[in-house]
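re: ur question from yesterday

yeah so i grabbed the chain u mentioned. its 62 aa long if i counted rite. heres the sequnce exactly as i have it in my notes:
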Amino acid sequence: MVRLLDKGDHEVHYVSENNHPPIISKEKFQAVRAEKINRSNVKKTKDGVQRKSSKYSSKKGR
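ran it thru and got these structure tokens back, copy pasting raw so excuse formatting
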């Protein structure tokens, strides 16, 4: 299935779905996605995006 996606930015976007068998199950994909978010060093706050810790970050102040 192919459908046109209109984001209002005057660009044409086509979204293609269900054209081939999946490599992994949707459940496994969602589980890995949740684990990546859980392990992320970034947290979203009302003030924006911040790092939880700079211990292993390459973004340390120099």
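noticed a couple things. The helical segments are 26-39. also The mean pLDDT is 77.
anyway ttyl
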